[in-house]
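Handout, section 4.2: multi-component inputs.
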Amino acid sequence: MPHRLVPQSVIKRLPIYLRVLDMLVQRDIDVISSKDLSEETGFTAEQIRKDLAYFGAFGTRGTGYHTEFLRDKILKIIGLDRKTKVIVVGAGHLGFAFTRYTITKNPYVNVVAAFDIDSSVVGSKILDLEVLPVSDMEQVVEKEEVKVAIMSVPAEQAQEVANKLIDAGIRAILNFAPVRLDYPEDVYIHNVDLTNELQSLIYYSTTEQEKIGRLSEEQE
Amino acid sequence: MPHRLVPQSVIKRLPIYLRVLDMLVQRDIDVISSKDLSEETGFTAEQIRKDLAYFGAFGTRGTGYHTEFLRDKILKIIGLDRKTKVIVVGAGHLGFAFTRYTITKNPYVNVVAAFDIDSSVVGSKILDLEVLPVSDMEQVVEKEEVKVAIMSVPAEQAQEVANKLIDAGIRAILNFAPVRLDYPEDVYIHNVDLTNELQSLIYYSTTEQEKIGRLSEEQE
DNA sequence: CTGTGTGAAGGAGTTCACAGCG
DNA sequence: CGCTGTGAACTCCTTCACACAG
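Output:
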């Protein structure tokens, strides 16, 4: 199974296929065609077949894909076949919400710990998970060999926290802080900036017509 | 100022430019070159110039861009020059966190109301904002002429809530529920699925080397 | 004869290279 | 002489078309 460079756009679609397949397995649907997967996901059937072809030939010609088999293949491809350990750094409102949601709704990951610097938050619980002081962070990451971190800390602290995480052995970070971080090439950081998402959404909340109207009201 | 189709990738970068320009204005830096903007944002200088060129010629040759001027241009392009009204539907942990963050940190939008269906949440406060029952939603959207909504409701309720929002006049929705929604063409919906983000991140937490090793351990 | 797997064509966006203005 | 603005080349991804397996 060769593993050339897979486009990022393909990787972003895998979890979407995964969710649909999970749903189909639960509904006892054994087989699905790329055409039907297309309906469920909104992507074209050709694209789905091409995406899967990056990793092998998982379908049966004339029939389609076996849902459970394909689901397990995708789990293996992403690396979710063994519950992936993750930690959360920053147990503010967002970190709390994300942690709670992940624990209850994401069966493929294992939130091993949550950390915060604020002593008023440390010691509180997210479901059964106690929030630990950041001073324990490096030790836990090293001992549990955690490779993935979710970082929801204030922008000012993000770089420092990221450095610590990377030093301790973290390889991938989901960063909610609105800053561009410096990091070595062998680490992967994905930024989720909700303010940016909202602002680009707002761009699309006015039609082309309205934009032309507004922009021609130039008065400077 | 012609307004042909601007690539989505360009629109996603505008808020990033905006944030950097805000920072520069605050530091009393009057002028910046595309090269220096490149350093700040991580995008190439050529790309930044091309992006801006979609909307006009805002720079001065031999000098660069006037920060405050460019900032105001981008605000106008996105549609943030008048505080954009938004509502939040679903005041669970995530909705609460997002609302709080937006009110305190995003000076360009105005959260006019938050709604929830759960009577134990209705009446509670997010900073000074009282959470209203969803039954008030349509009325507020129509009266205040809100065009943008943030939707952080359970997946099962998402389609129904979206339908109501669109009927009431909402034109753009930031959807945190992990479902693909049906909606008319003149509405814009942007999905933010944090579970997907985490899962594609996990793909990148193992190196190519490790993947090859793990995938060759096939035993079925 | 249905639906996958895939080379080939097409399209979208990024990088290159440089003309042209301040 | 520096840095913007932009056509042209290029790269990457998506769509098309079809060979081929079940």
